[in-house]
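Final report, Chapter 2: Outcomes

The project's central promise was a pipeline that accepts a single protein chain and returns its three-dimensional structure in a standardized token representation, suitable for archiving and comparison. That pipeline is now operational. To close this chapter, we reproduce one record exactly as it appears in the project archive, with the input sequence first and the structure output second.
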Amino acid sequence: MQGGRSAILHYSSVRVTGQTIGQYEVQRLLGAGGMGEVYLARDKRLGRSVAIKILPAFFAQDRERIARFEREARVLASLNHTNIATLFGLEQSDGKQLLVMELVEGDTLAERIARGPIPVEDALKLARQIVDALEAAHEKGIVHRDLKPANVKIAPDGKVKVLDFGLAKALTGASPQADLLSSPTISVAAATYAGAVMGTAPYMSPEQAKGQETDRRTDVFAFGCVLFEMLTGRRTFHGDSVTEAIASVLAREPEMSALPANISPKLLELLRRCLEKDPKRRWQAIGDVRVELDTILADPHGKTLPAAAAARLPLWQRALPAVIAGVVMAAIGATAAWTLRPAPVAGGITRFSYALPKDQNFTRTGRHVVAIAPDGTNVVYVANNQLYLKPMAGMDAKPIPGTLQDVNTPFFSPDGRWVAFCAVPEGKLKKIALTGGASVTLADIDNPYGAHWYADDQILVGQGPKGIVRISANGGKPETLIEVKANEFAQTPQMLPGGTHILFTLATGTDDDRWDKAQIVVQSVASKERRVLIDGGSDARYVPTGHIVYALGATMFAVPVDVKTLQLTGGPVPIAEGLSRSAAVNTAATFFSFSATGSLVSIPGGLTGGVQALALALVNRAGEKKLLGLPAQPYYQPRVSPDGKQVAVEVNDGGREMNIWVYELAGATAMRRLTFGGRNRSPVWTRDGQRIVFRSDRGGDWSLYWQRADGSGAAERLTTTDRNSGDTPEASSPDGNTLTFFRGVATGGVWALSPTGDRKPKVLVDTPLNKTAALNSVFSPDGRWFAYESGESSRSEVYVQPFPPTGAKYQVTTSGSTNPLWSPDGKQLFVVDNNGSRFNLDTFDIRTQPSFAVGNRAPLPIDGFQQRGGTRAYDITPDGEQFLVMIPPSETASGARASLQINVTLNWFQDLKQRVPGQ
């Protein structure tokens, strides 16, 4: 997904309306969400109407989870309170797990709020009943953990019923397909560590959002969010994505100015203390909130004083509370308005956008892709695997000759005359003059984690697990300036004014949220002394206005800093939301850049490279598309089964959840999850269709496993790697005796093993990564040849070798191509035209007898589909007539797409100083 909501996957494969499940006659669907589907049913044995929730199908496959849930359910069933919907029991029928609950008629509180803010008196009466429900549960040691308007029902007589008590805890490990902005955020990591994130993003307490231990004070915070929403008609903390909503909870303060103007100051204070980010400063018990509410209910608008006391006061003293209340409210409103006011439009601050042409797409989005010259006159960005130059005063962007070689991380020289970049296949840092000419190689480097050209002739390059190096702008051997420990990553180095300290991001561990947990630090070049400035954030840059700007999720924050003392002089303030940034599995790269003259360029869109929801479609050779009957998901690497009846595909939300799912193309059943445990990627069918090979980190390293495609039996490990390597399956030979795979990082290249033999990996194409990487191997249908792509020339091209290798090699493409695939009859070879994140498909006629020969290249009318990551993102059906591809869900039959753009803010420094004043 890019800055939006993931689709909800309904796990009940067939609607059960009209069926009888056990003793329950199902009548109609009431609602559905990430934790199951709820139906109105008739209990035939007891003659009463009930609500039954059918839990996700994968739930029944986890015995430990069922046992844990049954224990929780017994506790939850013990709750007996007029404001809590009763849980009658947990039952099983026909392989389905059912929760049987009290049927509560009426609207949810969310539905009521959708019609507008609730009057103060009515909101307080509803809130008082919610508090009673929470207090009753807390007295039994039960914390809700997922209180939100959708979990509160209002009966026609005004009685409140709170639903789903304790289910957020009981259902730890629920589906990654839940809509996290409105459904529980339940991490698969919860199965392995206590700090699991459970709750719904906009209503989570800060400690809950951080995955820390939670207690009843978490419910107090959520109650404050719900009460605020009742009074204002809008969420207390909001964002277009889960990450932005969590960032809002962690860093933003509620907009108290949005509350009705005539409420009691005591109600303002109650809300403020409910919404304290530090749980120690929050109301410590919901009973305390109840006591305060009772006082406020007697005087919702703070207009009256106790009669006896009022009679004894002079007139001016009787008026004083109202005056004070007005001053307090005005002060709170002014403070909120100052802190959270929209960006000013006066003072010469100008905003506009540059839309990329339809044939351009941002590429290499795992690293930085946009930069602005120090004088603000030129912008450079990475699209279609090369650099484009866009003059600020010009209408169009032009490709920079000599950079069509798969590049990333552009950055300017201090005088703006040169732009440096990484040529990925070669593993080289290069520079090229904007006036034209050949590129100049500066040094051998690994893929950069950010870079900074300072002074006239010095460049800093982040090298992730290898620390930070300095390179002469005239060329030479990299010099290590900052070393990091094992399991640490250094990102986006910047030399601070004075040249004595380097600002950079330091992340630890391999978790996919490591960049949002990272530290922003400064380190002395001379003494190596390191100081932490910010805990929780990444991709920091120092701005000459006296600020540090950094990213948390897809939100940019700014904090004032004294660069002389290296001390922060204020707190963080969110200044931009919805920025594009690299997927968590890559780097901390956030796509913005600013000039020394105060202009800002940024790319909107949220996380990239792993979370955009896409649709799966079959497209024939005429280019006609047919969508599969599946919701849009963050799909990767779809593969058609050898019999053409099923599809295996990776669903990947950007790093936290990665699993292989199987879908029957006939559409008779729902999508079925195949893998459990760890993160699982890159499915490949064996040629007999009996097994699926995939890569997984469940054993602590990225190794190969295979599992029966019908889900029976456990996954079996095929390879073992070290921390500097990782195996990715690519192809199974027609006889099933050979499996090819890519072994990356330390020994990059195509390897092979016999899954039915000794399983000893052997090098098939020996080419080190970042030099001449070879990958995406695929067998011909007769098994006598294999094709692959390699960067052994200046760019990736497709090659063919006999199998087993004889030493012969044939180059198929000469103009930049990737991701080869044989036609089922072996007479054609398809390749991807190297044209960015969306691809064009070309074909070559192939002859293998009496000798190998390649025909002319011919384009197919199949273009504009998504190519994400380095692995092949399309497949072909066994009849050779249709291609399985991924397309944006917004695409029409004509192939239209949402515009990609670069946003520009002129005089951004002025805007920054106004919104985040220094001290």
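Archive annotation: Residues 315-340 form the longest helix (26 residues).
This record, like all others produced under the grant, will remain available to the consortium after the project formally closes.
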